[in-house]
Structures are given as C-alpha cells and as structure tokens.
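Input structure tokens:
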C-alpha cells in the first residue's frame, strides 16, 4: 500500500511538455502558474489545462518565470517516513536473524516449534484409526505373539492383573534377525489393544547439541503419561542404549546422558500409569546391562526366523495382495525357502508378481515363484555376459564336480539345480536345498560339506588338466569350516574339546582393550596340522568320488553345455545311467489383458514342478 501511494503521488498530471515547448508557451503568456517539485514542473495554462515538464539545471528559470508573470510556488522536499527509517536501519539485523532461524530449523529437521524445539520428542503417535495392523497380519511367530498377548490383556483390563498383586512388565525387548517382524509385531500389539502408539527410532534422540537427547526422552515420556495407557516403541534401541564407557577414549557423553535419562524414566513411573516400553534390536549383546535388568526391560521376546509352517503362513498373508494361480502351493514354496525371514518371503512374492507382469500374465503361477526364488538365492542372471567356449566347459565341469560329490554323499543337502549361467558374481551355481529345517550340524555333515566344496577344483584337474581361480571361495569356506571344527566346536580327536585362538573381543564394546593370545605357538602349530589333516582327508574323498563317476560327470557336463541349467530330476536321470529328460518348456505367455469390462478367461495351468525334497 505504501508503494502504491508513493507511486500515485508521483504520477504526472496533465500533458507532458518538452522543456523547449514550455519555454515558448511561457514567453507567449499561456502559462499562469507553476509548482516546482524538484526537477518536475507542474503548471496550468491560461485555458485551465494542466501540464507537466521536467527542467534541466537552469539557474535562470525562476527569474524568467517571474519576468513573464507566472505565479511560482514550490513543494517542500519529502523526507522518509518513520516507518521507512526504521525499516532501513533494522532490515540488515532482521535479515541476519531470519537466516539464523532458517539454518537452525534445517539443522533440527524443521520440527515442531522450529529452532526452539530441540527438546521436543519426535515420536509419532498412531491411534486405533491410523494403525490398522492386528495379530491377523502377523504370521510365523506364534510363540512371540503368545509372549506379548499379556500386554494386550493388561492394556485392555489393567485391574485383572492388579487385583492379584501382579505387575505387568514395564518393558519388552524384542530380539531377532533383521526382517523377522519385530516392528510389525509391536504395531500389532497397539492395534489389538486399541491404545495410542508412540513410535520413534533410537537415532532420533542423538543430536549435535548437548542435552537434546535427554530432553527428548523426558518430553516423550511426559506425552506418553498424558495419553496412558499407551505403548512407546523404540526401534533400533542399540543406537542409544549401547554399553556405557565403551571404547578406548571413553564413551560418547551425549549418548550416555540420553541413556541415563531413559534409565531413570523407565524405572521412575509407577506400574499403574500404563505406559509400556517396547524396543527392538538385532544387537542385544551391545546393550547396557542396566537397561536389561528387571524393572526396565523385564522380558526379552525372541522373534526367530520362521520354520516351515511359519513360512507357509507368512506366504499366505502376502499372497492375499497378489492374484495367485490355482497351481501355486504355499507349502511347496515354504519347503524350498529354508532360512528366509518374513521380509525375504515378502520380497519373494513381490519378485514373482514382477516376473508375471513381464510375461503379461493375469495370474502369478508356480513358475514365477520358482524363477523369483532362483533369483533371490543364486542371484540375477547375467545372460549378456559372453564367455569363451573353453571357460564355459571349465565351468560346466566345475559345477558337475560339486553336484556329483553332493549327490553321492548321503548327509549333504540334495542338489536342487545346477546352472552355468552367470548369476550375481559367480560364473556358475550348484544350488542345494535341505529337505527340512536344520538348527545344528554334526561332525559328519560338516566333513561331507567340505568334500563337496572341493569337488569343483578336482573336476577341473581331472577333466581339464588345469586350475582356475573359480575355486577360491570354495577353499575359503572349506578352510573356515575346518578351522572352526578344531578351534571352536571341539570336533577334533587330537585337540580335544577346547577353544583355541586369540581373544577377539571388540574394542569398542568396552569389554576388552587389547587382544591377547591364550594359546602357545606349539599348540597353534598342532591346530594348523589338524586343520590340514581334515582338509587333506576330504580332498582325497572327493577325488575318489569324481574319478569313480567319470561317466556321470561327462554326461552332466554335456547336458549343462547344451541346456545351461538342469534340475533335480535331470540330475537323477544322469546318476541312474539314463539319458536326461529335456527341460520343461517355458510357460506360455498370455496376451495382454482386455479392457476391464470384458470378463477375463481362465488362467493357463503352469507346468512347473515342485522343488526337490518335497
């Protein structure tokens, strides 16, 4: 408005004359009066019409105007207003303050309250309307669900436990491998109990300013008490709950202050408040002992990798979101995915849907699941890699050696598939799948696995009369297994049930400062000799198997060079002396889907067979 008013005040009024025209009219007597406003002259003619002109530096102008009888007046020079004076004097300071506030907000992530929200909690609250997850969405962790079901009952009816003198755990620590569903289980607890759910990550407490983490812990618990009964979920608590005093130069003071405040808050509120702290981590060994004592995290709930039944349930949960063909069987897929976590199985279903979409299918069939499983376990195919024929033949003999030794040793996992198509970083892969979940291994199984690892190099020596670098990872794994047998697992008769080796405690866990040897040099020499004996025995065993089954290895190599990939049925044909059956034709590609108004035709049945060991 100020600019508009200033602009309007300075608008020229009437005609704009040149200075020479103004002089001529003045001498002719047509100008009656003039108002001098700086370099501008605003005047009026004898006929009453206004005009405006701009004068150069003319010292005789006023005398000429008076000479020709012109009424002369002048406007006083306008001074800046008080507001403009204040703005011009304080504007640089205000600009500096604004820039400072902007950068402080950026450093703090633009949280609530801007630059003055250092101590505010960043926990996000979910209520029953924004948290639809329930126990029905969590599968494969039945024991963990039973452990935490008491929390749901307490949050729904606290008096049921309190009238008998019972006290619900104030904190529950969920421990498990990555991807097993710890965060999902915590959200399901809040969804079942229909209470507010505060979610925060351990790294959100730690900032560059001293005292911010402790202030955020205080603010978080204050908010939780106002919304009690409620749940506080701290994900990846090892970011802030690491053991105090760790490291060579002392601990991080800011992180330790945050941990101290959390210890006080967890043990400071009453059990009747109804605030339950749930934390998740996959590194419980680095947590501070004071955090794990009763009264803080009273209960540790282990969320393990799912077994075969759990994997089937998890697959069924994720298959709800995908159109599945009638030939897909979750139990067969579960048997072929040992060691998969819940996140791995979700990725398997997603990859299968992507494979089906690339083939323009309407439904995801068993063949898509098989291809997705091969991609996840063995790596993506690199068909664009051009290998010389000599190297292809060498890779085929290498993988055939692995497969034949594994097939002839009874305690090894069955061979599911052999391929010489480069996958991931490997030029070829021999894929073995166990017939059932395994939780430990005995001595004979480990020894036979070492022999299988040597099968590839021995086949190269016997059939190609050469050695390549492709067996480097095989030797590394075999040596590591043999060393563990002697130094950790007590599986050596000459060395006995004793742990040998150096103290390998981590410096930054605060448990040790320097590594030291706890065995003598003579003992380590005996350990090396025992490791060498184990490796030599299994090398001889694998070589004997390969030299005895030359015909089978030649047939398998020929099949690999022709088809590039063979499955368990073709391997069984070769080992039985029969010619291997040809590979199954790929599933037919359906045309693109019609418009939504048309009814979709029934999906074709897949020709994929179940995995080995079913």
């Amino acid at each position: 408005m100020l600019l508009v008013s200033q602009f309007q005040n300075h608008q020229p009024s009437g005609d704009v004359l040149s200075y020479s025209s103004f002089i001529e009219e003045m001498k002719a007597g047509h100008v009656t009066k003039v108002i001098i406003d700086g370099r501008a002259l605003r005047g009026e003619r004898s006929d009453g019409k206004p005009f405006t002109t701009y004068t150069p530096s003319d010292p005789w102008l006023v005398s000429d105007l008076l000479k020709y009888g012109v009424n002369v007046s002048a406007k006083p020079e306008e001074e800046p207003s008080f507001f403009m004076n204040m703005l011009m004097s304080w504007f640089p300071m205000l600009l500096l303050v604004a820039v400072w506030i902007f950068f402080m907000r950026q450093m703090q992530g633009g949280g609530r309250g801007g630059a003055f929200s250092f101590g505010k909690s960043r926990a996000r609250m979910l209520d029953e309307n924004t948290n639809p997850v329930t126990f029905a969405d969590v599968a494969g962790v039945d024991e963990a669900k039973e452990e935490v079901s008491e929390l749901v009952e307490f949050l729904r009816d606290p008096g049921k436990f309190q009238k008998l003198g019972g006290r619900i755990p104030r904190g529950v620590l969920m421990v498990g491998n990555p991807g097993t569903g710890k965060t999902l289980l915590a959200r399901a607890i809040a969804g079942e109990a229909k209470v507010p759910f505060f979610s925060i990550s351990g790294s959100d407490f730690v900032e560059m300013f001293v005292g911010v983490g402790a202030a955020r812990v205080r603010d978080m618990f204050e908010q939780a008490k106002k919304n009690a009964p409620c749940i506080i979920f701290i994900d990846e608590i090892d970011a802030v709950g690491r053991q105090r005093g760790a490291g060579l130069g002392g601990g991080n003071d800011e992180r330790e202050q945050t941990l101290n405040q959390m210890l006080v808050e967890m043990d400071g509120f009453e059990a009747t408040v109804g605030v339950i702290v749930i934390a998740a981590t996959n590194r419980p060994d680095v947590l501070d002992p004071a955090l794990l004592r009763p009264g803080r995290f009273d209960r540790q709930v282990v969320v393990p990798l799912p077994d075969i039944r759990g994997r089937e349930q998890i697959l069924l949960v994720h298959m709800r979101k995908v159109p599945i063909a009638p030939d897909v069987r979750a139990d067969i897929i579960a048997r072929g995915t040992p060691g998969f976590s819940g996140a791995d199985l979700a990725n398997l279903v997603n990859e299968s849907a992507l494979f089906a979409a690339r083939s323009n299918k309407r439904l995801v069939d068993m063949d898509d699941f098989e291809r997705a499983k091969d991609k996840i376990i063995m790596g993506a195919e690199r068909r664009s890699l051009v290998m010389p024929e000599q190297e292809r033949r060498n890779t085929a003999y290498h993988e055939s050696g692995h497969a034949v030794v594994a097939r002839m040793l009874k305690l090894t996992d069955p061979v599911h598939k052999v391929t010489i198509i480069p996958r991931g970083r490997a030029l070829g892969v021999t894929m073995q799948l166990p017939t059932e979940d395994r939780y430990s291994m005995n001595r004979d199984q480990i020894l036979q696995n070492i022999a299988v690892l040597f099968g590839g190099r021995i086949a190269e020596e016997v059939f190609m009369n050469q050695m390549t670098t492709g067996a480097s990872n095989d030797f590394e794994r075999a040596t590591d297994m043999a060393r563990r047998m002697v130094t950790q697992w007590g599986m050596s008769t000459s060395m006995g049930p004793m742990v040998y080796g150096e103290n390998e405690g981590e410096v930054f866990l605060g448990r040790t400062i320097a590594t030291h040897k706890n065995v003598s040099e003579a003992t380590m020499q005996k350990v090396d000799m025992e490791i060498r004996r184990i490796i030599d025995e299994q090398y001889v065993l694998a070589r004997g198997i390969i030299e005895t089954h030359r015909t089978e290895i030649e047939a398998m190599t020929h099949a690999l060079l022709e088809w590039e990939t063979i499955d368990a049925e073709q391997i069984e044909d070769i080992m039985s002396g029969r010619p291997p059956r040809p590979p199954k034709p790929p599933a037919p590609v359906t045309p693109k889907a019609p418009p939504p108004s048309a009814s979709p035709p029934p999906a074709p049945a897949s020709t994929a067979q179940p995995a080995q060991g079913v």
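Residues 389-575 form a domain with the Methane Monooxygenase Hydroxylase; Chain G, domain 1 fold (CATH 1.20.58.760). The radius of gyration is 41 Å.
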